[in-house]
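In this section we walk through a basic example: taking a raw amino acid sequence and producing a predicted 3D structure, encoded as discrete structure tokens. The instruction is simple. Fold the sequence below.
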Amino acid sequence: MKKEKTPLMRRSGFQTLLASLACILIGLLIGYIALLIINPAGANEAISTILKNFLTYSKPKTQLKYLGNTLVKTAPLLMCSLSVLFAYKAGLFNIGAAGQYVVGAGASLYLALGLGMPWYVCLIAAIAAGALLGAIPGLLKAYRNVNEVISCIMLNWISLYSVNILLNKVKEPTSPYTYVLSNTNSDAIIPSLGLSKLFSKNQYVTIAIPMAVLVAVLIWVILEKTKLGYELKATGFNKNAAKYCGMKEKKNLVLTMSISGALAGMGAGMFFLTGFEQWSCTQSAVPAMGFNGIAAAFLGGLNPIGVIFSSYFIQHITNGGAYVDKTMYSAQISDFVSAIIIYLCGFVFFFKYAYSNWLSRKDEKKNANASDSQEGGDAE
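The resulting token sequence is shown next.
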């Protein structure tokens, strides 16, 4: 018997895509209205600039160079979104991706600048640090039923100030920033393997970018095609049922948070080991990368392949906002517009639910009309 194909409009992936596009369009509209209220004269150009990003430059070589910069920052965002996604699939909300990202940055930079280690050792250290921090709320959840959101939030700030203290040992004497990686330990920079040539010799473009995409594919395989992924998701749905079926539910909770933390820590290593940015040892705010990963995960429909595209989009508009005319708008306006769009990303599943309900009501009405027509025909 041939299986009936699900109509396109009923497919989950198609509905997620529509919901994501709706969030993006509504976010852009609200951002545009805000720009009109602040300064109507520059609103059209400002919203266009945010969407164009590197395309605001006229020369192709310059466009490629700044496209490379966007991709460099997309890689860690993708890893943070995978971190949130992985935990969520197992029934946990890892709001601690930001803190895990921070300790990954601290571990990789300290080994690179303080101990002179090569890039692969520093990257492994970042992964291990993130995994270790992720395991703490996992253990508290598994053995003491402590809400992972609360423990993760507290660990975010502990991580930030601990890393600031640690990296004070490898900072420049006259500034709050860590030493320049390329001048201090060039072996700690992730190799490019020729990728930089594709982006007008942008030195920050490294194999971290394809590595992040490969990790996304690997996470999809683990979650959808392996016994481990099935057990982790089953534990997330109902840990008591998982225990009854013989699964080690406590171990699965800890393992989930450890892997989730490792992904965020790896993202930090991928970013800071390019030398693109120095760490400021006086910063008092947790990097936005971990929190933006939440938006990217939901905008991508909690699908590892979908978050590749959602992570790029969020980073694209974030970078594009930096080019908004500062004579018409304050420096914070780009962050404001980007934040509106990112905030709307959290409503993907709401729009998907509303769309699915609309289809159901439409089908019910159609079936009711068909039934009435048939009864009328029978009466004749």
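Looking at the output, two observations stand out. Residues 12 and 352 are 9 Å apart (CA to CA). The mean pLDDT is 89. In the next section we compare this with other chains.
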